[in-house]
Amino acid sequence: MPQTIAVFGAGAIGSLVAARLHESGVAVGLIGREAQVAAIQAKGLRVKGRDESRVVQLPATTTLAGAADIVLLTVKSQDVQDACRTIATLRSDATVVTMQNGVRSDQEAADILGRDRVVGCVLNISATYLEPGVVEQNTAGRFQVGAPFPESKARVDAVLALLSLAIKTEYVPDIARSRWTKLMANLNNAIMAITGWPIGKALRHPGLTRLSIATIREGVKTAQLGGFGLDQSRRARTFRLMSTLPMPLSYLIFRGRLAGNFPPDSTYGPSTLQSFQRGSSSELDYLNGEIVTLGERIGRPTPYNAGLLEQGRAVFATGRHQSPEELLKNFRF
Hints:
Blueprint: E1 4-8, H1 12-23, E2 27-31, H2 34-43, E3 45-48, E4 53-56, E5 60-61, E6 70-73, H3 80-88, E7 95-98, H4 105-113, E8 118-124, E9 127-131, E10 134-137, E11 142-146, H5 156-163, E12 169-171, H6 175-186, H7 189-195, H8 199-202, H9 206-225, H10 234-244, H11 247-257, H12 271-278, H13 288-298, H14 303-318, H15 324-328
Parallel strand pairs: 1-2, 1-6, 2-5, 3-10, 6-7, 7-8, 11-12
Antiparallel strand pairs: 3-4, 8-11, 9-10
């Protein structure tokens, strides 16, 4: 019997995955906010890529209702608990796939829905949603799927098979380590959100590059001291290397291995900047805030992540970006 899939959260990732699954013949419904849903219902979803643009006609509604075999939870980190409470009202046994930045969503979902229903997915992809009815995939994608709890291991294979229809997907034996690795990559989201600069431009600014490196180094060391390791990916090895080398060598590695993923003329801004541009709430408490909270728990100062969290909150509160010079005056290297 064919599976029914609900994609709960019609932002960049949710809309993109729903479109890909629909094109693969999967019975999928997309649930999102009114503006996005209305645009899709009226004209379809325009999916842009590096070399193409197409319109996909797929079902979209503002309300999660009815039975689904798998719910792809693609809301922002700060909306996970409310979304899971909505899922709980359906009184189904649907597998729920957490697809958020940060490291809390698996436990938050399990606290509401039960550990046996939750499968984790780490998103290694850059996508943009700024205009209702339009999403863009900016880089090649790779999903990592695993069981955050032993009780949910039996559900992983079905999720792997499903997501592989949309994006290259791999199984990882320790999803928590993959989440912590992705968190390190997301710590510099605050820099783009605060300055309003796209990532390709921001990570070629010498001062902002040093700030990004210092923030990641602080994050890696804090995570390690707090008992949370990174995975064995090339990216994680780069982060660990940067955390031990002097700043000049870390600078060269960062520019070669990380900043180079986005060309200087790239207009892509990470998800936190997109949230600001759409007038949405901030996920920074789930990114830099995670390092700050862990640092407080283990008695380790985290001035770079704490400073970015503070300045990021101010930008979201005031609606005004800061220049690189304004931002950098708050930090010492």
